[in-house]
Amino acid sequence: MRLLTEGHGMVAGYVAGGRGRQLRPVLIPGNLVEADLRSRSEGQLPFARLELVHSRGPWLGEPLPAAAIGWITALTAAALPERQPYPALFPALAALLDAVCHAPSARGWLPGLTSYEALLLRELGYGAPPRPESDEIAAQLAAFDALGTRIARYPLAERRGDVMGARSMLRERLARIV
């Protein structure tokens, strides 16, 4: 299991019983958890004890929010290196996940999604892509498509198959709102 932490960046840990009935709902991508990580040595994968703080599970039953949460979490987990903090990404990710869960439609969170992708590219050192020309949904989708090629080419160049599949699913679902 991998966690994005505010102070330490992406951290991997072993969760004993993570596939069991009690912990499986806690380990849903996008959930906010409190984690206690412990290891005996620096090179050992730490054991993680998790406590659920906020669940985003109810929104996984809706196709569009589920695809957005899947893409956002997959991108973050695949693109960020271990144990390198990115202080701007943690609050941006939390705000984006909240927007996906609470906005009445994708029109409310799509600009935030493209801003998060642009922030991730900038934080990883790939520069800032141009901003959409307007707030119309067509311009936002065009910006989303343009960012997709940059993301596939740079931070996900070696592992884009499964992760970009999540983005393709989200794009197909977004096409239905136009």
Q: What's the rounded overall pLDDT mean?
A: 91
What is the CA-atom radius of gyration, in angstroms?
A: 16 Å
Low-confidence stretches: none
Task: Tell me the fraction of residues in β-strands, as a range.
Answer: 5-15%
Biggest beta sheet attributes: 2 strands, antiparallel
How many structural domains?
Answer: 1
What is the tally of helical segments?
5
Biggest sheet, spatial arrangement of strands: 1-2
Task: Say how many strands there are.
Answer: 4
Q: Which structural category do the helix and sheet elements fall into?
A: alpha+beta
Q: Give the helix level as a range of percent.
A: 40-55%
Distance, first to last CA? 36 Å
Order of secondary-structure elements: EEEEHHHHH
Shape descriptor reads globular
